[in-house]
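BUG: 3D viewer hangs when loading the predicted structure for this chain

Environment: internal workstation, default settings.
Expected: structure renders.
Actual: progress bar stalls at 90%.

Input used:
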Amino acid sequence: MYVITSFFLFTVFKNLITPELATDYLAGAVLLGAAPCTAMVLVWSTLTKGNPAYTVVQVATNDLIILVAFVPIVKFLLGVSNVTQP
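Structure tokens produced before the viewer hung:
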């Protein structure tokens, strides 16, 4: 099913997406993938009846690490795919 869907999307969108636009989409996907989703951690913790104090400490620690690690991670991922940051 994945192959059929990929083939269909490729044939439909191949003329609409230029190489420059594809590069921008790739950069956006890397930035989105590297960004932490703090809200979802809090939501899942609430849904699973987790310990709210532990969750806040865990999210705060993760956010502090991301403040330092986000730029190097994104620069590495974009550098691997030869994409300049827009």
